[in-house]
Structure formats: structure tokens, C-alpha cells
Amino acid sequence: MSDRISDLPDPILCQILSSLPTKLAATTTVLSHRWKSLHLQLSILDFNDETFQHFNSFIHFTSTVISSRDITVPVHSLTFKCSNKTSSSHQRLMLNEVLNSVFDRIRVENLRSLEIASNGNLIVQLPRRVLSCKNLQVLKLNNAIMEDSCNSSGLGFESRFDFPLLKILHWNGLKFLTAEFLVKFMSSCPVLEELHAYGSSHVSLAHDSEEKFNPFPNLATATIFDHNVPITLLSEVQSLHLKMNRRWIRCEQLPLFHQLTNIDIIFTYILLKDALKWLLELLGNCPKLQNFKIQDSTDGYGYLIEVVGDYWIDPPTVPQCLSSQLKTFFLGGYKGNENEFQFVRYIMQNSKVLQTMTIKSTLDADIDRKHQMIRELSSTTMTSTACKLLFD
What we know:
21% strand; 13-stranded parallel beta sheet; 10 helices; three-stranded parallel beta sheet
């Protein structure tokens, strides 16, 4: 029986193999002599230690594959992941050495997508040549560090940031050594469309440094769980998922969100008084807001901390989004406190085109208390006659 797959031309076979992890693609060399070197011609490389029993085996395989490749063969997508649970200084050295060797053997100007990730114990130090990937469109970093040190020419990382085509940027546990470093990194992505930021560290931004940032004009969606990201960068975003903490809510000067239509907010242990004040300012700065969601990050315990006193005062003017735009409103972790109730009633009475209002009570509320909250809200007159009031 003839091997019809092996009769296919190299470009098609390489396209098939590129959909596999590089280790699996390499195993096809046992099929026949025809397949022996195909995995060395792939434009998509995916190195992942999860399929290796030993860390050293992963390092050896990666090093062997990359050293055997023709340096002129372009690499368009590179994924390098290490989830090794036990780490040592020696293993970190080996990991960074092999990653540097990868970048020494590829032409970074061909890279369109790059993902580098490790576990929390084995932090990857990014090779300097990452910053030479000017054609990158996707960059994802997990537990990586950018060090602000000088190379042989006297130039540090911070003087070379340039990602003119980058559209998607994700990070989780990215470590910077200076605030200025973060400024220059984020300012080097002028056409960014998607930003996911989870926890950068070793950064302390002064309030007056806000003026150094220009907003991303093309930003469509952002998920920000990182208080080191200045909110002024996000003023042109269309959809925003935001985790607020005490440090951010007290320091940020809210910009005008010209294009924002969807926002999903998580509060973490913030005084209700501070949160309501911030939310009112936010509504006033979002003229196109259509979908407004406030979540409870702690499953009903402590997301907003009530203080004694009746401090709610209806604003003198109604935000534009309530008058003509807001269609859905969701509030999680509702306790039914007086000031919280006044805020919800304010939304109900001033949202003229609201279609759905969903209230989710706290998990610790008993049945009688939940029924009382439902009666209180149901008795409030809504401006929008088409609005459905839902309880969870």
C-alpha cells in the first residue's frame, strides 16, 4: 500500500506538522526517510516541557532541535513554556541559556507571534533580542523578567523598546525593575488592540508620571488586574474588565472614556463609600456605556465594606449614558445596605433605555433577607418600562 501522505509536497506536510507541538512533530521522523528533516523546516515552533518526564530532557530536546535548524528557515510563531514545578538556580540558568540559544538561531524579524511562559518558581529572563521583534503582532509573557541593565554598547533594554505592529499583549507576573521601564515598554505599542495585564511587580508609579502616557487609540478590549497600569492608557478602550483595589481607587484620575460600551468591574475589599463615589465619576465619564457589570470577587464576602452613616446623595445631573445608552446592569454580592440600595435605585430611576437589571445577593444572606431585598427593589419605579428586574 502506497504512503499517499508522504507523497504530498513539503509545504503542505510542514503546514500539517506545524499544528502539532514540536516534540510530537519530531517523532514523525520514524515514519520514513521522507519525514526525517521536515520538523526542522517548520515556521511554527512550540516547545513545552509538559510532555517531558524530566527537565533536562526538555532542555536537551529544545537545544538539539534549534541547533539542527537552518538559520535561514523563517520562524513566524514561537511558543516556549516551562511548567517545571521544582526549580533551582542551576535550572534557571539552563532555561535562560537555551532560550537565548533559540533567539540566536532564528531571525527575529520574521516573528509574528511570541509566547514565553514559566511557572512561578522558575522565572524566565527575557532575551534582549525580544525587543528586536519589530514585526510582532502577538506577545504573551508569563512569569518573566525584564532587567534594566546595559549591554556592551552601553544601551539598556529601556532604550530599545519598539513594537510598531503589536496588536495583542498579554502578561501575567511580568517583572520590571523601574517605573520608567514600564512606561517605555507600554508606550512602544502604538497600535495595540487587546491588552491583558495581570500583576506586574517591582514597580511604583508616582502620580505625576501619568502625563507620560498616551492612550492606545485602537484598543478594543482590555483586562486589567494590575494596578501598575495607568488607567489613562485605556481612555479609548471599547470593552474593559477591571479589578479595583484600594491603592488604585484612591489615586487614579479618571479620564473620559470616549468609546467604552462594556465594563466589568471587580472590587476587592474597598469601602462602599469610596466605591460609590468612584462609580458615579465613572458613569459621568462614559457617554456611550451600554453594559455595566459589577462583580463580587469573593463570592459574597467583603467585596465592598460598609461603614456607618447615610452618605448617599443623588448627583445634581444625570450621566449621559443613563439618559440614552445603558441597556444592561448587573450587580453581584448585593447586601441591601441603605447606601447600596440608594445607588441601585438611582440607576433604576434614571436609566431610560435599560432592558435588563440583574441583582445577585450575597451567599450569606438568608431567605427572609433575600425576600426583603426583592420587595424593596421591586417597589422602586423604573423609568424604562421595558426593563426586566431579575434576582439571583
